[in-house]
């Protein structure tokens, strides 16, 4: 078994060092202003420099990640690149950065756009987009906007992530690049290939010169990896364990990304573009599990009897994102007209796979030796295939689709107001979104139960796992059956739904420059028409159900940007935003079985937030800045999961799980950022410190009870540290990413000790490159050098809800570039 360092100690050290270094950064900045730099800005510094230029020009409080001169982001995918900027961290899946949190707020509270159009979510239940579906080679820049102006969709609380893909006008002439790399996963001792490339060129059409540009990018990667897991789901009773499950994951993951972009600039007053993007993310996952349910709750190192289920899950899952954006800009004297049409489609498909094949056995003398990693060991019979009999095979296929169509225009006019330069701007947008999910479940019994279903022992590293199940014999038996005879009618409809969400928006805003002060004031209006259809299952009988929920919002805002000096900026903003319920929360399905019920809530109110921001930025030299941003968010109608048994229609129920609106929540915090280039060294530090409280209500023994909780998915501390060194030949970067624990799931109103928390994490990554000449580069990356794990617990950190480890991974590659 592996041993792991204390995350608590590492977290404390990270917090203290970050604060101290950010305080000292002011001194470094003054010294830097008195020195003259002669080192050419290349590689890491070039990327940071371009990002800071965009951040500096922005009218909003924002952070940027920019591809460097050879069109390469500093990380392998968009999610991992974003985690290096202030206030941003990632939720990792199987060790890879996937979902992005902003200012400690979860993925579903943020929005993602590609080339100006909203990206729908492939997953059936979420609004949040997994950004690992976007290979780094397709991206020119990533921007996180934290204070939204009225001409932007108001659908984010933490921030809006803007993805801009490669354009031919990003380079002076012909540009092309190609790379090949190999990855190595230490846990599975497997190698994984990747190839990628991009090309762009400008052409002369008609009487113009270099006025038409074409850019294309392609990326393909195949990765073999996995993880070891043990989870109890919080099944503890007074320190005694009720059940646990050991899981071994083996995954083959394939990514394919392609983009083709066209730009036409016939004259200095007109420009038109077509942006296209395709991304496919395919997982072939095999999960071996050994689940143990003790006859009586069991103490540590104490033998006891239990029922054991050895289970196989095998499925293929494919996620696709398609995006098409057609737009243009024209200037007529003092007027500027911009228009855009966008279409995006996301899907997640499982063509059919084993959702669970369980073999059951009864055993004595089973025990566990740790409450944090409660793996089970037993006598030889526990590992004997002949002691298990097949109980049931569950077969599942599903399709989820999310389509977004939108059209918008923006019209602005430059004018003078009492000799002050001003811009008046107004516009409108119509978007139509449709989300559907269709799941089919078959449950087959009375199959052959021979030990022939078992193969070799598992390669599980947390304990002795025992024999694993083979899918071949199960597939052979299912092929001889008529699956329609085994369809589970209830399970096949309860998760099905179709949701339509139409948003009509209009805004007006005015920008005026008073010498050093820029003021942006405006008002946005959004009207939402929501309709959802699904199924209600009452005691075995299913009926269709549909619900409408229409609402609107008036959203004023005020932005101030004051130039303290040529290199220092003071910013302030008051904004109002709205985040709509995700699709799991608003689904109409209701499932009732006896005195237990589970259902969505399509009548949920949208989360409304009034946001206040104040920040200052000081720029000095190449790739150098120090910044501080304070923020406060006053939130109404935040959404949480709740047990409403004992209230209203659920008075006679023991359990009725759904989603409710909370009354109010408040989030406040500060972001500290520091970046500096000093000779050949690059330093970067940033931390976000925040606090969040919310009130929830529920019935306990017929009485209304109120409890104060942390805001769900809100990390109190998020931080990044980076040190790099480079010259014309060699570059190195060591980066660390920290996220403190957060509330993952709320238990009963009177059971705070059973709330589910995700523990803090520290990831350390190393990357570097060697330039053989100006065209050829050797690069390498090492991720998760500290062998960090994912850990959930209920109330007490010592008692497991879920533990998972992935191990480090390594990559090395060769890149050829012409520009």
TrEMBL record:
Keywords: Cell outer membrane, Membrane, Signal, TonB box, Transmembrane, Transmembrane beta strand, Transport. Residues 55-160 form the TonB-dependent receptor plug domain. Residues 1-31 form the signal peptide. It is a multi-pass membrane protein. Residues 384-785 form the TonB-dependent receptor-like beta-barrel domain. It comes from the Bacteria. CDD domains: ligand_gated_channel. Pfam families: Plug, TonB_dep_Rec_b-barrel. Its main location: membrane. GO terms for cellular component: cell outer membrane. InterPro entries: Beta-barrel_TonB, Beta-barrel_TonB_sf, Plug_dom, Plug_dom_sf, TonB-dep_rcpt-like, TonB_rcpt_bac. It is found in: Cell outer membrane. Belongs to the TonB-dependent receptor family. This is TonB-dependent receptor. It comes from Acinetobacter indicus CIP 110367.
């Amino acid at each position: 078994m592996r041993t792991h360092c204390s995350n608590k100690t590492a977290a404390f050290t990270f917090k203290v060092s970050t604060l101290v270094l950010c305080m000292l950064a002011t001194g470094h900045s003054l010294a830097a202003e008195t020195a003259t730099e002669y080192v050419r800005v290349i590689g890491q510094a070039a990327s940071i420099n371009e990002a800071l230029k965009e951040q500096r020009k922005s009218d909003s409080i924002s952070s940027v990640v920019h591809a460097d001169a050879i069109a390469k982001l500093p990380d392998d995918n968009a999610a991992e690149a974003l985690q290096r900027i202030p206030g941003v961290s990632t939720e990792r899946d199987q060790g890879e950065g996937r979902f992005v949190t902003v200012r400690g707020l979860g993925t579903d509270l943020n929005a993602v756009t590609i080339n100006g159009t909203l990206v729908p979510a492939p997953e059936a239940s979420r609004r949040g987009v997994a950004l690992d579906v976007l290979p780094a080679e397709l991206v020119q820049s990533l921007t996180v906007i934290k204070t939204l102006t009225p001409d932007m969709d108001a659908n984010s609380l933490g921030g809006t992530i803007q993805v801009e893909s490669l354009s031919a006008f990003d380079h002076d002439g012909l540009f092309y690049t190609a790379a090949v790399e190999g990855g190595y996963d230490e846990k599975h001792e497997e190698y994984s290939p990747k190839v990628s490339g991009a090309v762009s060129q400008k052409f002369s059409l008609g009487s113009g010169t270099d006025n038409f540009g074409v850019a294309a990018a392609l990326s393909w990667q195949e990765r073999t990896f996995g993880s070891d897991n043990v989870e109890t789901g919080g099944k503890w009773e007074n320190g005694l364990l009720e059940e646990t499950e050991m899981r071994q994951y083996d995954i083959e993951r394939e990514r394919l990304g392609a983009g083709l972009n066209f730009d036409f600039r016939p004259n200095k007053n007109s420009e038109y573009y077509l942006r296209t993007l395709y991304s496919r993310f395919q997982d072939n996952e095999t999960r071996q599990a050994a689940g143990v349910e003790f006859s009586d709750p069991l103490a540590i190192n104490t033998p006891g009897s239990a029922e054991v289920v050895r289970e196989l899950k095998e499925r293929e899952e494919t996620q696709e994102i398609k995006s098409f954006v057609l737009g243009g800009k024209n200037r007529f004297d003092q007027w500027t007209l911009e228009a855009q049409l966008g279409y995006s489609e996301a899907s997640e498909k499982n063509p059919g796979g084993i959702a669970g094949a369980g073999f059951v056995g009864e055993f004595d003398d089973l025990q566990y030796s740790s409450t944090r990693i409660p793996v089970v060991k037993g006598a030889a019979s526990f590992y004997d295939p002949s002691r298990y009999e097949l109980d049931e095979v569950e077969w599942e296929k599903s399709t989820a689709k999310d389509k977004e169509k939108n059209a918008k225009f923006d019209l602005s006019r430059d004018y003078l107001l009492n000799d002050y330069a001003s811009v008046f701007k107004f516009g409108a947008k119509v978007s139509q979104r449709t989300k559907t999910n269709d799941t089919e479940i078959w449950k087959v019994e009375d199959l052959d139960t021979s030990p022939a279903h078992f193969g070799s022992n598992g390669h599980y590293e947390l304990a002795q796992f025992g024999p694993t199940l083979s899918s071949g014999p199960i597939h052979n038996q299912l092929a001889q059956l008529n699956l329609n005879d085994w369809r589970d009618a209830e399970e096949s409809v309860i998760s099905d739904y179709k949701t339509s969400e139409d948003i009509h928006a209009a805004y007006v805003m005015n920008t005026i420059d008073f010498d050093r002060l820029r003021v942006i004031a405006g008002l946005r209006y959004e009207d939402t028409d929501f309709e959802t259809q699904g199924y209600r299952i009452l005691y075995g009988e299913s009926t269709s159900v549909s619900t409408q929920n229409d609402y609107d919002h008036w959203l004023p805002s005020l932005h101030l940007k004051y130039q303290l000096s040529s290199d220092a900026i003071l910013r302030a903003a008051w904004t109002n935003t709205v985040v709509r319920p995700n699709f799991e929360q608003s689904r109409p399905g209701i499932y009732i079985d006896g005195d237990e019920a589970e259902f969505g809530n399509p009548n949920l109110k949208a989360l409304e937030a009034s946001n206040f921001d104040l920040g200052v930025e000081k720029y000095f030299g190449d790739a150098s800045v120090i910044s501080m941003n304070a923020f406060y968010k006053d939130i109404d109608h935040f959404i949480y999961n709740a047990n409403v048994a004992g209230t209203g229609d659920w008075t006679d129920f023991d359990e009725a799980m759904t989603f409710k609106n909370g009354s109010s929540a408040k989030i406040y915090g500060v972001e500290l950022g520091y970046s500096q280039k000093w000779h050949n060294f690059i330093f970067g530090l940033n931390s976000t410190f925040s606090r969040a409280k919310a009130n929830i209500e529920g019935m306990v023994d017929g009485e209304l009870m109120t409890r104060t909780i942390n805001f769900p998915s809100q990390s109190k501390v998020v931080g990044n540290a980076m040190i790099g060194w480079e010259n014309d030949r060699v570059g190195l970067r060591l980066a660390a990413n920290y996220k403190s624990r957060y509330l993952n799931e709320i238990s009963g109103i009177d059971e705070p000790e059973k709330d589910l928390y995700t523990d803090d994490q520290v990831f350390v990554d190393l990357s570097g490159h060697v330039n053989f000449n100006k065209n050829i580069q050797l690069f390498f990356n090492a991720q998760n050098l500290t062998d960090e794990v994912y850990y959930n617990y209920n109330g007490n950190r010592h008692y497991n809800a879920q533990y998972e480890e992935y191990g480090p991974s390594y990559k090395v590659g060769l890149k050829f570039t012409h520009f």
